[in-house]
Amino acid sequence: MVVIKKKRMEKLILEISDILNSPIGTNEIYGISQPNLNGRIEIMRIENGVNVKILELKTDIDKDCEYCLNKYKQEIIFKDGERQFYQKAPKIELDPFESFTIDEKHRKIDLSDMIRQEIILHFPTISVCSTHCKGICPYCGKDKNMEECNCKEEVVEEIKPLAALKDLIK
Asked: What is the pLDDT of residue 143?
């Protein structure tokens, strides 16, 4: 049974006593609406706790362009990510950064570390403000997106470190 709940989470802390009292396999979908973070997650009751699956999350982060060094907002959208939150620490020793537990006293889980890790995993490899960014001139330092410069680019001679091997093969 899937239940959709629209609860406002305080600092990504979610009260889960209802699902902990439900049979194994029960699903609930929660909407996340935080400043700079929106999306949906699914929580499923498992044998020793709950499984949290990100259905979709969207956030904007402030980045510096690697080409022109200007600040810009990078939109990050991801539709994956899954973690288990256990009522008691598992008997099998897990990585402490991957092991999440339920606050049994308050019957709450804190999703902030899980979501933080997922956002970092979805950072772009190269952060650029646009696909057409020209960057800065390596000689005068002007932003080529704003103005052209008169610097002439030096032609760098191509270095072929294995060129001598060609003569040895003959």
From this structure: 92
Distance CA 147, CA 104 (A): 60
Q: How confident is the model at residue 1 (pLDDT cuts 50, 70, 90)?
A: very low
Residue 13 and residue 115: Cα distance in Å, rounded?
11
2 has a pLDDT exceeding 50: no
Q: Tell me, what DSSP letter sits at residue 130?
A: -
User: Which helix (H) or strand (E) is 168 found in, with range?
Assistant: helix 163-169
d(CA 145, CA 104): 55
Q: What is the DSSP letter of 136?
A: B
Cα–Cα distance for residue pair 28/15, rounded to 1 Å:
12
- The residue count for the chain: 170
pTM score, two decimals? 0.71
